[in-house]
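Records of this kind hold a single protein each, on a pair of labelled lines. Below, a sample record shows both lines together.
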Amino acid sequence: MTLFIHTVKNNTVYKHSIEETLKDTWESADEWFVH
């Protein structure tokens, strides 16, 4: 099972798999959550 990170930036939701999500993506997001 693959977990996905959802990041929210400028009211737009971006979906990333855990494997391809970089630390700077999390830091630049307004918020993020694991789904």
